[in-house]
Write a structure and sequence with these properties.
CATH topology of one domain: MetI-like fold
Distance between the termini: 43 Å
Strand content: under 5%
Number of strands: 0
Shape: flat
Order of helices and strands: HHHHHHHHHHHHHHH
CATH superfamily of one domain: MetI-like
Structural class: mainly alpha
Helix content: over 70%
């Protein structure tokens, strides 16, 4: 017996539908869009960095050699650094080198006739030092932000809330150099237990390295924790007023399970962006903190390059920091989408 046409229509639409490729999954498409947007942003940042360094710092050969240098010497250094081409040509050559992991030669090193002129060789160690400092700070920042923010939110308006919120507001509003100077005065001048600088010399013992990193990490945490704690606290208070939390309590679910599994999990999603912003702050704040404590990281490397007006070093260090900033933003957006089901369905 033939089936009615009304029953055949759904069969023809669904039974023979071919699944799309995996890359067409909404989350995968979201990742592709965010990565593409990040690459375009990085491209724009590279143009700004190259032009700003080239215009503000001037001709690297003239700056390094001085205006009293012989024209032939200046031209030779310009040829060595590729400065004898037009600005667009120099940018494209610089960008192509960056894509291949070649950051060029240091103008100062070439002018001084040093044996090691490659920026890639000299930038590796400062980058590693900054990465260690950032990772240690991040490993402490995230759990402390979640713990104290959730604790303040669960005890909103009580003494424990005030004991957490007031210091976070105070320290979060202080500039890095104020917090760093205060910590140096307290732990070095008054107590004499921690060194005021972090030189990280090769012969230093492990305990010595840990001591030298304490004050830089504390300074970064003091500023970054404030905004994160307030955001998690606000999210926790708002989530505790939701209907599903009241229903969970009415059904006899233990309070600890309600707080951890239901309230805290839903309060974390809006806080991810704030935590990501704090991590992005580390990219800029680490420059100031490294300068305060003489920490030999990429921030100190960048400050020294600006001081000596080494254009090529400034461009390389700035592009690395911009790349880290953009990557953190992309990862944060992805985490938020994965944590919040309604955002995945809206893709």
């Amino acid at each position: 017996m033939a089936l009615p046409s009304s029953e055949l229509a759904p069969l023809s639409n669904n039974a023979f539908q071919v699944p799309g490729p995996r890359w067409s999954h909404p989350v995968a498409m979201f990742v592709i869009r965010r990565v593409a947007a990040g690459l375009l942003t990085l491209l724009a940042a590279s143009i700004v960095i190259f032009l700003a360094a080239s215009v503000l710092l001037g001709n690297a050969a003239v700056v390094v050699l001085g205006r009293a240098a012989q024209p032939a010497t200046v031209r030779a250094l310009e040829s060595r650094l590729g400065l004898d081409h037009s600005l667009p040509h120099r940018y494209l050559a610089w960008l192509w080198s960056m894509l291949h992991g070649n950051f060029g030669d240091s103008a100062v090193a070439v002018a001084e006739g040093r044996a090691q002129t490659s920026i890639s060789a000299t930038l590796g160690e400062p980058f590693l030092h900054s990465a260690v400092l950032a990772l240690v700070t991040t490993a402490l920042l995230i759990p402390l932000t979640l713990f104290f923010g959730a604790l303040a939110g669960m005890h909103a308006g009580r003494r424990l809330d005030h004991a957490i919120s007031v210091p976070s507001l105070v320290f979060g509003g202080l500039p890095e150099f104020v917090s760093g100077t205060g910590l140096i005065y307290l732990f070095f001048t008054v107590l004499g237990v921690l060194p005021p600088v972090a030189l990280l010399s090769p012969g230093t013992s492990t305990s010595g390295l840990v001591k030298q990193m304490v004050l830089p990490v504390l300074t970064l945490l003091a500023v970054a924790l404030g905004a994160g704690i307030r955001q998690v606290r606000s999210g926790m208070i708002e989530t505790l007023e939701e209907q599903f939390v009241h229903y969970a309590r009415m059904n006899g679910i233990r309070e600890r399970r309600v707080l951890v599994r239901y309230a805290l999990r839903n309060a974390l999603a809006p806080s991810v962006q704030t935590i990501a912003q704090n991590l992005q702050y580390l990219v800029g704040g680490i420059i100031i903190v490294e300068s305060i404590f003489a920490y030999p990281g990429i921030g100190t490397y960048l400050v020294d390059a600006v001081t000596t007006r080494d254009v090529t070093e400034v461009q390389a260090a700035s592009l690395i920091l911009a790349t880290v900033y953009i990557v953190i933003n992309i990862v944060a957006d992805l985490i938020v989408v994965l944590m919040v089901p309604r955002l995945r369905t809206a893709l």
